[in-house]
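User: Reviewer 2 asked us to show a designed sequence for the structure in our supplementary figure. I'm pasting the structure tokens here. Could you produce the per-position amino acids so we can include them in the response letter?
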């Protein structure tokens, strides 16, 4: 019992450390506002005004701009207020994961994960960057928390999972595509945990009927809750403006065609490429080593030579072009998926957006706030309001040294998570499946869509890193229960009353 108390004490000390460390780096490290961050500020400005329907870009989810608007309204138009939503979402996501692990009976592992993720340099860099990726990580943590809610009220848990998926959609619309995977995991959680040499009770006379019912409900409800925003998207869709700067809004309009271009899956003689064939070939050559294309695909600079011409011309045909290309050029598509999967699992490429943010926030902390997008209408305003005079301190120097270590661990974590997912499905262990399926599903989704953009995978990376601890723990210590948990006989794994 004394060891349990010590583990619990260690757990809360870890959470206090995480909170204090967030405050510390929040004060000592600068803000970075990329072009897309200026777009977020612009979206935040029109939310709640009579310009909302005419000025808001409905390809962008509303939850993060809303959080940004609230923070700036409460704490003023300054760099700290602009970063506050990311600090809150980042810390809250870590707390959710830690409590999920502790609730399963692994207080020491929960403490280790909390400290481990708090010190992750890339994650810290994104907490200081005006982008919604940290909020998306919070959404993934919320989904994991709901999946592993130990309760004998099974429909209540299914509704919680569905609600968490709906919340995730309003932070990042791409997360709607992982809803079927999460719903399946929730259904599997109703099956008995398969442990060596142990007999467990089943689901009753019609176990699979219940699994199917819960799976369908967890999959359908999020789409119903997202329907109001989808209707607004269709109603207020804005036309393409050829010649403007390519950004997240433009990518969101035609994700599938963008992915084909990013990974150069379309042959240069494809009719879609058309008159851009010469520039397309030059871009591929620029981003290749010999005949091998870099894992990150084409860089934004290389794509700028032709992407507007192709995307704008075929704005309404992306889905049809994608599936036709997969069918006609299967080997090229498979190679693109492989490159994307490696890149999104943590391998570095020539298109290293993360490296830029880590450098701006941590390595070059003494340069102060960085605002990009000089051609954006809010650039001058952000430049004058988000002023920070930060210095290179022991904190930034230490995080710089940790960066390369975490980069290596991330690649290992991707492999461990994949193996853990296979083991979890074999054992029908919802805990193991939940911790591994959530990040793997996000990465695999983007790889299949050929969206080899590091930033899109960043929300999954902290959970991947946590799996370096949790996969071995769940495999080798499968029957641990929180001392505050009372086991009850319910279908599936072990639940609390």
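Assistant: Here is a per-position design you can include in the supplement:
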């Amino acid at each position: 019992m004394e060891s349990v108390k010590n583990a619990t004490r260690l757990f809360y000390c870890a959470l206090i450390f995480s909170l204090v460390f967030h405050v510390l780096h929040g004060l000592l490290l600068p803000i970075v506002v990329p072009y897309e961050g200026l777009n977020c500020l612009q979206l935040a400005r029109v939310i709640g005004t009579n310009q909302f329907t005419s000025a808001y870009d409905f390809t962008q989810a509303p939850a993060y701009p809303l959080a940004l608007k609230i923070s700036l309204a409460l704490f003023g138009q300054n760099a700290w207020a602009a970063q506050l939503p990311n600090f809150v979402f980042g810390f809250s996501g870590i707390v959710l994961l830690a409590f999920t692990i502790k609730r399963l009976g692994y207080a020491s592992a929960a403490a280790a994960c909390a400290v481990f993720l708090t010190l992750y340099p890339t994650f810290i860099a994104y907490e200081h960057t005006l982008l919604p990726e940290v909020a998306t990580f919070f959404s993934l943590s919320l989904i994991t928390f709901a999946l592993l809610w130990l309760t004998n009220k099974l429909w209540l848990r299914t509704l919680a999972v569905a609600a968490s998926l709906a919340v995730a959609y309003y932070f990042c619309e791409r997360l709607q595509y992982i809803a079927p995977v999460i719903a399946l995991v929730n259904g599997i959680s109703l099956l008995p945990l398969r442990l060596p040499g142990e007999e467990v009770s089943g689901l009753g006379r019609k176990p699979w009927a219940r699994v199917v019912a819960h799976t369908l409900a967890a999959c359908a409800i999020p789409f119903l809750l997202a329907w109001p925003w989808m209707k607004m998207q269709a109603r207020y869709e804005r036309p393409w403006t050829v010649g403007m700067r390519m950004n997240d809004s433009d990518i969101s309009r035609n994700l599938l065609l963008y992915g084909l271009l990013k990974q150069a899956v379309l042959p240069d003689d494809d009719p879609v490429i058309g008159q851009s064939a010469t520039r397309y070939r030059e871009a591929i050559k620029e981003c290749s080593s010999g005949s091998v294309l870099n894992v990150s695909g084409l860089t934004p600079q290389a794509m700028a030579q032709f992407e507007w011409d192709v995307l704008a011309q075929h704005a309404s045909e992306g889905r049809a072009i994608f599936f036709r290309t997969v069918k006609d050029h299967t080997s090229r598509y498979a190679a693109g998926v492989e490159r994307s999967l490696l890149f999104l699992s943590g391998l570095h490429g020539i298109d290293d957006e993360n490296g830029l943010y880590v450098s701006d926030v941590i390595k070059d902390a003494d340069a102060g706030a960085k605002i990009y997008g000089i051609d954006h209408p809010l650039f001058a305003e952000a430049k004058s309001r988000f002023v920070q005079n930060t210095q290179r301190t022991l904190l930034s120097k230490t995080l710089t040294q940790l960066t390369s270590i975490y980069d290596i661990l991330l690649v290992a974590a991707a492999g461990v998570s994949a193996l853990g997912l296979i083991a979890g499905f074999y054992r029908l262990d919802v805990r193991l499946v939940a911790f591994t399926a959530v990040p793997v599903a996000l990465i695999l989704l983007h790889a299949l869509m050929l969206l080899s953009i590091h930033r899109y995978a960043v929300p999954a990376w902290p959970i991947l890193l946590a799996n370096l601890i949790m996969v071995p723990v769940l495999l080798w210590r499968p029957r641990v229960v929180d001392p505050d948990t009372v086991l009850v006989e319910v279908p599936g794994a072990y639940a609390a009353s």
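For the response letter, you might also mention the following. Residues 194-204, 240-250, 480-497 have pLDDT under 50 and may be disordered. The radius of gyration is 23 Å.
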